[in-house]
Automatic annotation (TrEMBL):
Subcellular location(s) of the protein: Membrane
Family annotation (InterPro entries): DoxX (IPR032808)
Protein's name according to its UniProt entry: DoxX family protein
Any one cellular-component term (Gene Ontology): membrane
Pfam families (alphabetical): DoxX_2
Ranges that cross the membrane: 21-41, 61-82, 89-109, 115-133
Predominant localisation class: membrane
Keyword annotations of the record: Membrane, Transmembrane, Transmembrane helix
Keyword Glycoprotein set for record: no
Membrane topology: Multi-pass membrane protein
Keyword flag Membrane: yes
Amino acid sequence: MQANTVSTPIQPAGKVLQLSLWSVQTLMFAAFILFGFQKLFMPAEALAAMWQTQWPAEYPTLLRLTGLIDVAGGIGILLPALTRIQPRLTVLAALGCTILQICAIIFHAMRGEFAALPLNFILLPLVAFILWGRGKRAPVAPR
C-alpha cells in the first residue's frame, strides 16, 4: 500500500514580489552603507552628539565593529544577488543584518535608549523580508 502525498509546487515569484525585493534590497544597501560609513569615519563624540546617546564615545571599538558589520551587510544584501555571483550570500547577509537588528534592540533597550529603537524596529522587518524572500520565495539563481 502506497501513501499518496500531494505536493504543491512553489509558484514562481510574481513581478510585484520581485520588484519589492529589489527595492528593499537597494534601500537596505544604501542605509547600511550610510550607517556603516558614519560609524567608521565620523568621530565617536560627534556621533554621540548627533544621536543623543553616549554609547559611541563609551564603546568606540563597538562603534567601529558595527560600522564594519553594517558595510559588509549592506554590500552583501545587494551585490551577490545583483551580480548573481554566489547569490546565497545575500541570504546570509540578510540573516546577519536581522541578527544585528535584534542585538541592537536588546542593547539599546537595556541601556534605556528607547529613542534609538524605532529605526531598529523599521530595519528589522525589512531585512527579515529580504531573508524570507531571497531565502524561500524568490531566490536568485547563480550564473
